[in-house]
Amino acid sequence: MGRTFLEAVAKRRSYYKLGESVTIDDNSVVELVDSMLATLPSPFNVQSARIVILFGEEHRALWDIVIEELRDIVPADKFEATHRRINEAFRSGRGTLLFYEDTSTLEMLKRNYPLYADKVDAWSEQCSGMHQFAIWTALEDMGYGASLQHYNPLIDESVAKRWSINDKWQLIAEMPFGEAKDVPSSRSQTSPPRDRMRVYGLYNK
Fold first, then answer.
1. Please, which residues bridge with residue 53 across strands?
2. Is there a cis peptide before residue 153, judged by omega within 30 degrees of 0?
3. 93: closest CA among 48, 142, 146, 131?
4. Pick from 74, 87, 137, 162: most CB atoms within 10 A?
5. Stretch 70-82: mean pLDDT, rounded?
6. Quick check: 95 and 59 in contact, CB under 8 A?
7. Are 145 and 180 within 8 A, CB to CB?
8. What is each CA distance from 148 to 14, 28, 191, 194, in whole angstroms?
9. Would you give the DSSP letter of residue 79?
10. Is residue 185 over pLDDT 80?
11. Claim: this prediction has a pTM higher than 0.85
C-alpha cells in the first residue's frame, strides 16, 4: 500500500491460490467499489456498470454453481482436476466481484444517440474493462490477490436466480479475491514494448 499509481499498475498480477484471511475490512472493499462506480468514466456518462459483491458463504455459493455447471460439460476424467483448481484458486478466497453491464441503459443510449448506436456495445466493453482493471489494481494495492475469470454465460441463469439479478444486467466477468498464497511467474513479453508503439512529433532538446 502507499505505492504510486504506476507502481500499483506494475504490481498487479493474477493470483491462482487464494486464502480467506482478512487483509482489509470487508467494508473497505465495499467502499472501494462504491468509489470506483462513482468516479470511473462511461460513454455519455450513462453509468452502465453494475457490480455484485459476494463475501463468505455467498462467495462460496457462486463457485459451487460454477462447479455444478462445469460437471455437465467437463469430461469425467478431467473433472476432479477442474474441481480442485476452482476450490484452490477461486472458492478458497475471501470474496468475488461480479461485473455486469446494464443493457437497459445501453439501449437507452442507442435510442438517444442513433448516430453512435453501432458503437455503444464496444463502449460498454471498454467501460467494464476500466472498472475491472481499476478495482483489480486497487485490491492488490490494498493487500489482496485477485484474478479475472469468465465463466459466463455458462453460469448466468443460475447466478441470476440465486441472487435475484435484474434480467437486463449482462454478466461480463468474475473476480475472485483474497489472501495471495502463490507467487506469480515473471512477466514475459512476446515482443519488446517499444516494438508495439509508434511515436511521432517527439521534441528532443
1. 97
2. yes
3. 146
4. 137
5. 95
6. yes
7. yes
8. 7, 20, 24, 27
9. H
10. no
11. yes
Closest CA to 103 of 156, 170, 50: 170
Instruction: Compute, in degrees rounded to 10, the torsion defined by CA atoms 123, 125, 126, 130.
Output: 140
Among 138, 107, 129, 109, smallest CA distance to 23 is for 138
Nearest alpha carbon to residue 134 among 122, 123, 146: 146
Span 5-196: which CATH code? 3.40.109.10
What local confidence, expressed as pLDDT, does residue 1 receive?
A: 59
User: Any idea where the domains of the chain sit in the sequence?
Assistant: 5-196
Can you tell me whether residue 11 is helix, strand or coil? Answer: helix
- Tens digit of pLDDT for each residue in 160-176? 999 999 999 999 999 99
Cβ atoms 146, 29 nearer than 8 A: no
pLDDT at 205 over 70: no
Stated as kind and residue range, the H or E segment containing 123 is helix 120-141
